[in-house]
Design brief:
By secondary structure, this protein is of the alpha/beta class. The protein folds into 2 domains: 2-160, 3-Layer(aba) Sandwich (Alpha/beta knot), CATH 3.40.1280; 167-229, Trp Operon Repressor, Chain A, CATH 1.10.1270. It has helices at 11-14, 20-27, 64-77, 95-102, 119-124, 141-152, 162-166, 206-224, 226-229, and strands at residues 2-7, 32-37, 50-51, 61-62, 82-92, 106-111, 128-131, 185-187, 193-196. Strands 2-1-6-5-7 form a 5-stranded parallel sheet, sandwiched between helices. It has a two-stranded antiparallel ribbon with strand order 3-4. The longest helix has 19 residues, at 206-224. It is elongated, with a radius of gyration of 22 Å.
Length: 231
Amino acid sequence: MRIDIITVIPELLENFTQESIVGRGQKKGLVEIHVHNLRDYTTNRWRRVDDYPFGGFAGMVMQCEPIDRCISKLTGERHYDEIIFTTPDGRQFDQPMANELSLKENIIILCGHYKGIDYRVRERLITREVSIGDFVLTGGELAAAVMTDAIVRIIPGVIGDEQSALSDSFQDNLLAAPVYTRPKEYIDVNGKSWGEVPEILLSGHEAKIKEWELEQSMQRTRRLRPDLLNK
């Protein structure tokens, strides 16, 4: 899989793409991530990629030309399954979308900035508009990082224990069950017990553990995210 991210602040993403699970996926040759500086595609002598909006509105708007030049160069080299624009008014990103996008061969993520992009770009080039929540960020770089991480980690082979990704919250519209590790009973710095690990998890009985896990997932989802049960 290949992910190309177009941004006006590449420094925010370059380290991210080389670290943790995303970096591991690249080292294993399972994914390629390329960050493109949109300013490299402008003909403006000061490398500007924005201008004032028509109509007297406040803020600045990303121009058509550098976006068109960058995307045209990329699509001239290979086919892209999706050209995604990160924007607060897009469809909300979720686990099913991450699963779907992880099956694509090549995708472009265009990071929004300023007051957005010239709407003609959205009409002509963008195949999918995506939001990571009902709030506004300074730019779409954090949204692109969130999406990239969620997509890459479920590509087979990226995580050593593939079942780990499959059991994450939201994979089946349920929150994950509680997890515990050693010691069996934890005594805090004040000498007070925080309780013991549930006995069922120490039993070694796989079927009963699975039943407990499902029951706990249902309880947590019903308490914390009842909206998911409607799905």
